[in-house]
Model the fold of this input.
Amino acid sequence: MKDGADSLSWKGAVICSTVELFALSICIGGLIVILAGLIPEVFNVGMETGGRLLTRVFSRYNILVMGACAMLLGCALVRVWIGQTTAQPAAPSPVEWVVLGALALSAALITWVLFPESVVLQEQAFAAKGELSKAEAYKTFFKSHNLIRGLYVLNLGLALTLMILKVRRWAAGGAVRS
Done:
């Protein structure tokens, strides 16, 4: 039978595992839905309309990912606290910290630096007049866009890696003990 501290840590670990998997599902599932479901269809409405629609969609997705990163970081800190107050090894591994840090850093870079800049470049490309001016504006926009696209793919890989690490740890009994 568990004493009070072990019972509390077990419940905390279960809650953390649930919240972490939910947060990672937002990161992974949201991007997969956008990439596989929305993007192939959205440009049927035209380049500018589709581009502006995707800008709004990715803006909201970025906010969701930042919320998911906050949940993941919060749960990591709770796990550290659980590990310090009980004999259970609840704290994230060094590899989990590195992957989580990279995910949060790249998501913040996208959300607060690169994405807003890319939106400005996109609007400049849409507003450009003349063939040469428009081509140059699109070239500049797509440089930024390709960097952001690469970071989204990196984030997808990081989120998948973090999910695998957490599920493996959970399955091995390192996060939740009965």
